[in-house]
Amino acid sequence: MTSPTERFAAARWQAVLRSRPMLTVAMVALAWIGASFFQPGFGGWRHLRYLLELAAIVGLVSIGQTLVVVAGGIDLSVGAIVTVSAIGVPLVTWLADPTGTAPALFILLCATLIGALNGLGIALLRVHPMIMTLAMATFLQGVLILIAGGSAISAQNAVLSWLGNARPGGISASVLLWLLASAIALWLLHKTPFGARLFALGTNPLATSLSGIGVRSTTIAVYAISGFTAGLAGALVLGVNGQGYVGIGDSYLLASIASVVLGGTSILGGRGTYAGTIPGAILLVTITALITMLNASAGWRNILFGTLIMALLLLSGRERQRR
Amino acid sequence: MTTSTSLLYWRIQNVRNRGLWWLFAVVAAFIALYVYLFPGLLSTGGISKFSQNWFPLALVSMAQAVLMLAGGISLSIGATVSLGGVIAATLLAGPLGVAGGSAVVLLVGAATGLASGWIVVRLGLPAIVVTLAASFIIAGWALLIMPRPGGAVPAWFSDLLAGNTPVALGLLVLVVLLWKLYLATPLGLSLYAAGENPVGAYRSGAPVDLSRIAAYGLSGLLCAAAGLFVAAQTGAGDPVIGNAFTLNSIAAAVLGGVGFLGGRGTMRGALAGSLLLSIMISVMFFLGLPPVAQYVAQGLIIVVAVALPEIAAMRRPRT
Amino acid sequence: VGQAHAAANCIKGDRKPPYTIGWANIYSVPTWMKETQGTIEKEVDALKAKGLVSKLVVTDAQGDANTQIQQIQSMIDANVDAIILIAGSSSAPARVLAAACAKGIAIMNFDSLVDTDQVTAKINTDSAQWGAQAATWLIDAMGGKGNIIVLNGPAGVSVSDDRRKGATPVLAAHPDIKILTETNTAYNVAPAQEAVTNLLFANQQIDGILSLGGALSAGAINALDKEGRPMVPITGENARQFLEMWKSKNLKAWATMQPNWLGAFATYAAVQALQGKDVPAFVKIPLPVISNANVGEYLAKAGDFPADGYIYSPYSDGLFDQLLAQK
Amino acid sequence: MTQDAIVAARSISRSFFSNRVLNDVSITLRAGTIHALLGENGAGKSTLIGILSGALAPDAGDIDIDGVRHAAVRPAIARAAGIAVVQQELSLTSQLSIAENVGMGALPRRLGLIDYSALMRRAHEVCALVGLEQDLARPVGDLPLGQQQLVEIAKALFRKPRVLILDEPTSSLSAHEAANLMAVLRRLRDAGTAVLYISHRLNEVLALCEWVTVLKDGVVTADRSLGGVDAQGLVRLMVGREPGDLFPRWTPSAEPAPIIAVEGLSAGMVRDVAMTIRRGEVLGVGGLVGQGQEDLLLGLYGAIPAVAGRAEFNGVVGLPRSVPQANARGLAYVPADRKREGLHLIHSIAWNLMIPSFGRAPSLAMRRTASERERAIALADRLGIKGDLTREVQALSGGNQQKVALAKWLPSDPPVLLLNDPTRGVDVDTKREIYALLRRFAAEGRAVVLLSSDTPELVNLCDRVAVMRAGRLVRVLERTELSEEAIVSAAMESAVPGAAA
Ligand SMILES: Nc1ncnc2c1ncn2[C@@H]1O[C@H](COP(=O)(O)OP(=O)(O)OP(=O)(O)O)[C@@H](O)[C@H]1O
Ligand SMILES: Nc1ncnc2c1ncn2[C@@H]1O[C@H](COP(=O)(O)OP(=O)(O)OP(=O)(O)O)[C@@H](O)[C@H]1O
Ligand SMILES: [Mg+2]
Ligand SMILES: [Mg+2]
């Protein structure tokens, strides 16, 4: 018998410091410090808080995206689901209650079901995630034509506007929601068998299935979670903006993928952590804000954004060689 | 297994149609439906116009398929098409002339592809994010060249490529022939090996890195060619005209059975996929479907078309 | 009806009612488009009642200019009598429209215009004038000096570019007006709000906002409001949300509009042209201006429009005839 | 040993990170000699040939090729010198044809294009040589693993090598195909080729090789002629101590009650198979490579769609419809292609050992790190997996990977073990452990279904052997009838005489 210490090399704090998530955190810090020198007003507490509020929405969408990517998939329908949710809540008038909780919960359920539908197509029909979720986004566009316009009555939803606007103790409610959701996401991913199944699935689906893990149920569940978090983000978007409209969720698709990747999660699946996505989301909104503040033509802004992402990738996104 | 040695190539080709018959059948059914709804398709003009609308999508689907075969993917397809188009609309009517201008367009396309390819292959970054970042850079570049639609393409050139003659179809056949020629070279064939089993291919002595980088170059070249054609077809340049091609090219390639993991699929499949997508637009118009139904039908047709062969092939739990 | 020579461009005079109208939309999902389509359908119903129109066929290019070309080609193949068009690109449809024109199809291009003369008529407000008027009002409201930010629509789109260009000479003529920075975003609330919020942190002193359309202004006001910054003079468009803020926050504001009834008018004008009436090659729609004086009138009708919609000015066949009569 | 040395490696050392895998290793390959390279799993054999063929660079030492000294061989130099390698891991491209795969990296060309008629001719020659009777236009992905291995060998022969290195080429070949390969290698040797042969099947080594180099923990422990060495002696060279018998003593099982009975089973290639699997037996499944044996196991395991006229599993009627259902009925399956089907290579050993339990545990139960570690250590110890369990599985040698793939099933104590070539690439000492384990399993009243391409294993370990051909069960040989000849002849019988058990 050998002792545990021989068989399990002790985790060292240096390793934590050198991990991908820490690298992303360092980049965020660098970006913030650099930007405050170069752009007065950037580093103020209120601005940073605002950036965190923006990051909270991206971060919520990215919870599902991270889990899906870890499980070896990708969800291209999150933007459409955010939109559906932001538009949908005010439409659920028959559930109207003074707090606005019932319609919000109902829409979250719908978003989860949409996600589960993605999962069903991927798991049962074996359609590639990129195609299934892309088709779902197209499909939802059709649904939006039906429901958008003419019917978005009032966006007053007490609980959502509190979430979107309140700042209890100076900290934004949306950021608190994000913190809570992050804690749950991290627990799910790293402390439960379900999370382990996601890593297994993303690494080697065939071996996973032969190991007796329910690949179908896991797939359906992870896309349902992605639908749920995108729906939650959509509800928050509604709360922040006081209104939803078609296209409001579009920007969250690329943002979620970018923050997942900037956070060091392998886009090929099987490796990663939401702990990296959190600074990834903050990094992304920071870059976007910086570029907005720059007085440059649209062309240059695009070039700058692309170059920055590419440069950050070189720092954080190197894939280890796989055999 | 007797002597028919020189027939090996053709037998290999034939085997590779396997698994695509259903797709060919669906495409044929759509063509038949289209002809039924619009008999005018069978005229020279009808074929010319239809193939002109299909041609750029066919090229970008090939561009995407090349990369997917090499184990990559590109999200900068659309931006590269736009860039090709604006350069064409800037140069073709200028002192460089049509030939010189076209050469510049194709060179720029190949160069952007090679650059992305170099980063992906040599620096070991994931293709999907590299090309996502590249798409911003390339789109920005297109906007710098042409902040708004404009420019011009000589009318004779537009008429030549996109007039009432099926020149586009002929060009497509030419491109397909060139592709077959490329696949018949060791470098081209290595693409499949490099895409599916790079380590094994490297050990076998196949030029893995070279063939992958070349795939990115070819892909950029094809996108720029599509941009050149779109500029000719529309007579001008537009810095954002290519956007939709990125996702459409992926959809077409996947419809055509090209896999995401590298080394799986055929170019003929990708082309058939693009043809299906293109023909669907016209057929849905002639069926008189309202936009809502168009969105829904498009989503469903794609899912069903991709799912059917998968379900049929569910013999083994291979993934 | 049936004159010897047709008066309008593209019209050969050989097409008889009832007509088939093709509505080639670039993207049918946004609310503005929904409202526009509503006016078209209403007009078609009216024309059907008169026996002038038999059918409306609708395509949606899902934002892709290439798809739109193919759909216009299909309309030509299906031999529609008229094509009503919002172009996805100002350059791309030129050649397919030339083919349609050659077949005697009436082409009515409105809102997003194409750079070609091969259409029966282009119908639009004047984007350059829009930009110029907005800039003039803003400069006036600011007393001729101060710092402004400029909010543009998406990059690479000609409407957005034209409005900005219209503003350029006016701004240049006032050296005391300093442009702090500009942005390009989709014509939507959320991205505008995000961009403006970031700009607020970078620029402590902002005296005016030149917002060139859509829901950009609503986003900007949300941003100011949320950051507790004072309201400043702002230009905008007839987005219901913006007008409501204008009232509730007592803004110093100005707005104009791209009336949704351009769709109805294009339909009406197409039938007129097919019937041999003279239709000018460019029908310039005077910019309806919303000011403090009449914003109340618009808001009174707000309930008839979607919450994220656009409150357009009233229209009638009489107005249409009047517009067609201008030279 | 009068022949010329073609390749002579001297004092080679190589480390991965800080782990020294080869230490001062010298080896000489001579023309006209079949040279065995032996050693336990992880001894460094694959690493050494990687260095000889240029796939890896040594940290120290040098290599003479034809008398020219190189500090490190680059792949191009190795190829130019005529060194060809059949790797332990397949290097094939599934969608390309057999011919294209055989030629990959050395395609004959004319005017810059691939010369398909030359390719056909030469590929045909080498395929015939290794006994691969397939249409050369077939995609390699269609072939079963064993035939893919033949393609891999044909690929090496295609280069007309002067030095041919084979890393466990027979690990998934059946006796018939292996014998065929031996004959080819002897012919090559007689034509002056230097052959370096790595195998864990010692009878092959004894029958084939003249010279042996033994590695133990990265050090050469023997470099000598094989003359006068017997199997026991070979094992002693490798293990460094007195070996016991490879196969445990066979005792009839006490309780021959059936645990699985199927009739009319069809799945994948399998057609209309009737069989019973009894408690307490090791049931072998044999036959030529790729006759549907794997599909039989997968069908029983619920991993591929299967139908049966009648089926009873452990008292439950009907086939399992999914893997979790099969697991619930007490079945476990260990695949042959461990990299693709058995393991999660980029994750740690400990984590891989826990995977089946992740499938069984409630989704949202809290994972306990401490108990996971304990269980992992216990499992690793049970199968002799040494060292740090946080290492990625991909850093393990092939045999050790196989141990992980097997060990992960042990905690669930499955009453039926379906094993697909479990000793493929496993060293002799570990094999013995596995064999003992399997017999112990049987003795405890479990059933073990052992699909194997290693015929001695079937003969010596099994209670009965089911022989398959073209998807059908052609014979079930009872213990008394078991012999290598009987299995091979049952597998080769062209007519099916009255079939099935
Ligand atoms: N002469 C032709 N005319 C029109 N279309 C053609 C012609 N030749 C080929 N095509 C189209 O191109 C497709 C691809 O052709 P082909 O099968 O030769 O591709 P390929 O280059 O061999 O691709 P792959 O080998 O990857 O399948 C055909 O299925 C067909 O759709
Ligand atoms: N790329 C690598 N990174 C880290 N360690 C490695 C790597 N390749 C091999 N090793 C280690 O080197 C040692 C020797 O491995 P090698 O594959 O050469 O063994 P082998 O003798 O071929 O074993 P087997 O008989 O199981 O194939 C093993 O301990 C293995 O874990
Ligand atoms: Mg081919
Ligand atoms: Mg080895």
From TrEMBL, chain A:
Subcellular location as annotated: Cell membrane
Keyword Nucleotide-binding: no
Topology term for the membrane: Multi-pass membrane protein
Source taxon at top rank: Bacteria
UniProt cross-references to InterPro entries, sorted A to Z: ABC_transp_permease
Pfam families: BPD_transp_2
UniProt entry keywords in alphabetical sequence: Cell membrane, Membrane, Transmembrane, Transmembrane helix
Chain segments annotated as transmembrane: 21-38, 50-71, 78-96, 102-125, 137-159, 171-189, 220-240, 252-269, 276-294, 300-317
Protein name per its UniProtKB record: Ribose ABC transporter permease
Transport keyword on record: no
Organism, as annotated: Bradyrhizobium iriomotense
Primary location: membrane
From TrEMBL, chain B:
UniProt key word Transmembrane: yes
Transmembrane segments: 20-42, 54-77, 83-111, 123-147, 167-192, 213-232, 244-263, 270-289, 295-313
Superkingdom classification of source: Bacteria
Signal peptide positions on this chain: none
UniProt keyword annotations, A-Z: Cell inner membrane, Cell membrane, Membrane, Transmembrane, Transmembrane helix, Transport
InterPro entries the UniProt entry points to: ABC_transp_permease (IPR001851)
Protein topology in the membrane: Multi-pass membrane protein
Localisation: Cell membrane
Quaternary structure and partners: The complex is composed of two ATP-binding proteins (LsrA), two transmembrane proteins (LsrC and LsrD) and a solute-binding protein (LsrB).
PANTHER family, sorted: ABC TRANSPORTER PERMEASE PROTEIN YPHD-RELATED-RELATED, AUTOINDUCER 2 IMPORT SYSTEM PERMEASE PROTEIN LSRD
Functional summary from the UniProt entry: Part of the ABC transporter complex LsrABCD involved in autoinducer 2 (AI-2) import. Probably responsible for the translocation of the substrate across the membrane.
Protein name in UniProt: Autoinducer 2 import system permease protein LsrD
From TrEMBL, chain D:
Alphabetic keyword roster: ATP-binding, Cell membrane, Membrane, Nucleotide-binding, Repeat, Sugar transport, Translocase, Transport
The protein, known as: Ribose/galactose/methyl galactoside import ATP-binding protein 3
Domain ABC transporter: from-to ranges: 7-242, 254-495
Organism listed in the record: Bradyrhizobium iriomotense
PROSITE patterns: ABC_TRANSPORTER_1 (PS00211), ABC_TRANSPORTER_2 (PS50893)
Gene3D superfamilies (alphabetical): P-loop containing nucleotide triphosphate hydrolases (3.40.50.300)
Family affiliation: Belongs to the ABC transporter superfamily.
Keyword match Transferase: no
A molecular function GO annotation: ATP binding
Superkingdom of the organism of origin: Bacteria
Signal sequence residues: none
Species classification: Bacteria, Pseudomonadati, Pseudomonadota, Alphaproteobacteria, Hyphomicrobiales
Record function comment: Involved in beta-(1-->2)glucan export. Transmembrane domains (TMD) form a pore in the inner membrane and the ATP-binding domain (NBD) is responsible for energy generation.
Keyword Transcription regulation: no
